[in-house]
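[recover] target loaded
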């Protein structure tokens, strides 16, 4: 029954429907195995949700004490003690009830699950534990937190406070495994730095970097696991860093199972490290996913960074070519700050002010803002010249474009960084591809959550980036190979970007308004209160490439979900379509979880309708509908189609057999389009592999 209940939780939106951000089962079990709780130890989860970590620890102990039947080596006294060793806190009454039910069903007669605010209440501050396992909330509630003053690190961020709480509530030889967002390991704010320093000095023995897609489809957040062991930390002068590239599942929204899995190797490495510490032996023969870093080095860096990527730098340096710092081969110029480029100084035409748009889209065909000659001469130090590299420096960061020969004269604005290259040593396209390499982007141009940060690292830091510098003739060979791949990519993109399903309309077919054959409505127009956890509210931005993207959603309460779905419940096979902005791009719903919709058209073929939903979906992707949208929204600053306008759109109604034939033919065309998409992926990987070879990294590349 207990396993059935856990399965039920997983299918209820993977616990998201219960209002709780779910940790994948295999990650829970991995963290538990890393900490290795024993039968005589007390175990706490201070943000227990549905008791996933507590039950994982319980099963781990049963399996350790198994001969023929699970847990059969445990004596009656052991079992009695075990029943009182597991404790959970949660601030949510609903989560407490779910935890209690889950524990009951796993044989706990009187589970010790308490409704308790671990961060604001002092009632249980004196309780300490042998083992603490947790994936505490990443986000701070709106309005912040008002913690009491007993925390060693004074902060108002939930992630900092929970990590501090766990470290402070371990017994003298206690151990912990904590899933944390990468802000904990790298954010440079004072509280984060104080926390990391305290952990390194007191209890941290290992940091395990997880891939960014582990929590898909609910979040793309980048996470790490901190392993604390107060006994072994006293014996170690090093921190073990482990970098997980694959966790047994692909990193897409569906998280399909794959053969590659670094978790077993990481666990084995951690166990070997702990054994060496326990026996005062040197730890040697590290696998490629591990590195040992002296605590002095970690503490010597002013931000006490625990981001594993920083300490795997050597992986980028296994190259046969000379390594040079960027400022040895190019000059840096950051755009002007302050009020240098106020809108009132702009003129209708003149010298162009280059913006992030140009770098992000690699498009130099137009501009929005211009300055006169006097202002241009005043700001001549920011002039853009052909072959310069422009890099976007805030918001969508790290995008790079090469200024073409025919670019209009002008200057960069405050959101760009300009690199002027010494072309006797380095080629523009070569440097562009080196800086676009995933490892460089991850380390220098993205924040620790994997999204764009507000501002790029300082120019001083970027100047210190070391890159491999082959001789010019080898750079030319690399560039020629990459350009060949890029031509194939560009050709395939032409197919993908220009394809629209086209249906030849027979004049004998009846034309009817969409509203006659389909129920057309939309989601809520209200703005329900968003919350950290709950049910996704899908808007136009979430409808992408034929599917719903759940990685960037706002969550609403169950009460709001029920209220919205009384009018606009979405069923499997329904059509959803944006009504504002980028109109069109309809999708057919494959319902895998509960959600609600807002400002999105919801189209359901009526019962006994003469039209297939797949045919309607195709019609809404054709030029016939595009032209209708253009006419109806003409003159508007932002495209918008009302429900009435959508209902009035006339669609052809061929016989069902012909609809089926048309759908089949279009699906065959789509297979060719998808083949081109795959071609793009393969040749982009070939480019990445070629650049990887320059860094000294060898990869197998899929062939066609």
């Amino acid at each position: 029954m207990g396993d059935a209940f856990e399965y039920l939780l997983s299918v209820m939106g993977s616990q998201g429907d219960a209002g709780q951000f779910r940790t994948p089962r295999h990650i829970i079990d991995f963290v538990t195995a890393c900490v290795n709780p024993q039968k005589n130890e007390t175990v706490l989860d201070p943000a227990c949700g549905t008791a996933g970590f507590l039950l994982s620890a319980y099963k781990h102990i049963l399996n350790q004490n198994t001969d023929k039947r699970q847990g059969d080596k445990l004596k009656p006294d052991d079992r009695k003690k075990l029943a009182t060793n597991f404790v959970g806190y949660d601030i949510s009454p609903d989560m407490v009830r779910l935890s209690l039910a889950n524990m009951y069903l796993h044989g706990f007669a009187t589970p010790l699950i308490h409704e308790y605010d671990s961060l604001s209440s002092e009632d249980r501050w004196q309780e300490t534990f042998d083992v603490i396992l947790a994936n505490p909330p990443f986000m701070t509630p709106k309005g912040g937190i008002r913690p009491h003053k007993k925390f060693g690190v004074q902060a108002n961020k939930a992630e900092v406070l929970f990590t501090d709480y766990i470290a402070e509530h371990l017994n003298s030889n206690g151990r912990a495994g904590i899933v944390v967002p990468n802000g904990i390991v790298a954010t440079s704010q004072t509280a984060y730095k104080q926390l990391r320093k305290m952990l390194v000095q007191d209890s941290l023995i290992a940091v395990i970097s997880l891939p960014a897609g582990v929590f898909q489809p609910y979040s793309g957040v980048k996470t790490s696991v901190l392993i604390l062991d107060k006994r072994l930390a006293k014996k170690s002068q090093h921190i073990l860093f482990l970098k997980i590239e694959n966790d047994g599942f692909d990193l897409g929204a569906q998280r399909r199972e794959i053969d590659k899995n670094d978790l077993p190797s990481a666990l084995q490495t951690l166990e070997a490290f702990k054994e060496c510490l326990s026996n005062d032996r040197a730890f040697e023969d590290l696998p490629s996913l591990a590195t040992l870093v002296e605590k002095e080095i970690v503490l010597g860096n002013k931000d006490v960074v625990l981001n594993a990527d920083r300490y795997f730098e050597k992986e980028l340096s296994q190259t046969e070519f000379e390594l040079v710092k960027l400022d040895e081969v190019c000059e840096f110029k950051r755009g002007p700050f302050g009020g240098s480029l106020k809108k009132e100084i702009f003129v209708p035409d003149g010298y162009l002010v280059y913006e992030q748009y140009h770098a992000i889209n690699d498009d130099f065909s137009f501009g929005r803002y211009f300055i006169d000659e006097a202002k241009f001469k005043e700001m001549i130090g920011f002039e853009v010249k052909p072959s310069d590299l422009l890099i976007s420096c805030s918001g969508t960061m790290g995008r790079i474009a090469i200024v073409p020969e025919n670019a209009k004269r002008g200057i960069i604005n405050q959101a760009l960084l300009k690199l002027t290259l010494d072309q006797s040593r380095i080629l523009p396209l070569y440097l562009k591809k080196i800086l676009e390499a995933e490892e460089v982007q991850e380390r220098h141009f993205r924040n620790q959550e994997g999204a764009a940060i507000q501002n790029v690292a300082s120019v001083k830091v970027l100047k210190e980036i070391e890159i491999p510098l082959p001789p010019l003739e080898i750079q030319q060979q690399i560039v020629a190979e990459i350009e060949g791949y890029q031509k194939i990519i560009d050709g395939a993109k032409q197919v993908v970007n220009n394809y629209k399903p086209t249906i030849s309309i027979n004049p004998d077919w009846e034309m009817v308004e969409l509203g006659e054959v389909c129920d057309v409505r939309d989601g809520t127009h209200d703005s329900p209160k968003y919350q950290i956890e709950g049910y996704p509210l899908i808007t136009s931005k979430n409808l992408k490439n034929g599917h719903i993207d759940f990685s960037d959603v706002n969550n609403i309460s169950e009460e709001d979900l029920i209220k919205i779905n009384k009018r606009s419940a979405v069923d499997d096979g329904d059509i959803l379509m944006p009504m504002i902005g980028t109109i069109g791009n309809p999708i057919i719903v494959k319902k895998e979880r509960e959600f609600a919709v807002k400002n999105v058209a919801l189209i359901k073929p009526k019962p006994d309708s003469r039209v297939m939903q797949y045919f309607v979906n195709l019609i809404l992707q054709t030029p016939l509908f595009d032209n209708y949208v253009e006419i109806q929204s003409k003159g508007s600053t932002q495209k918008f189609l009302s429900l009435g306008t959508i209902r009035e759109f006339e669609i052809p109604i061929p016989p069902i057999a012909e609809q089926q034939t048309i759908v089949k033919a279009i699906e065959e065309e789509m297979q060719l389009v998808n083949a081109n998409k795959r071609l793009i992926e393969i040749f982009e990987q070939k480019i990445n592999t070629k650049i990887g070879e320059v860094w000294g990294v060898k990869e197998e590349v899929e062939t066609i």
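[recover] notes: Residues 1-135 form a domain with the Rossmann fold fold (CATH 3.40.50.150).
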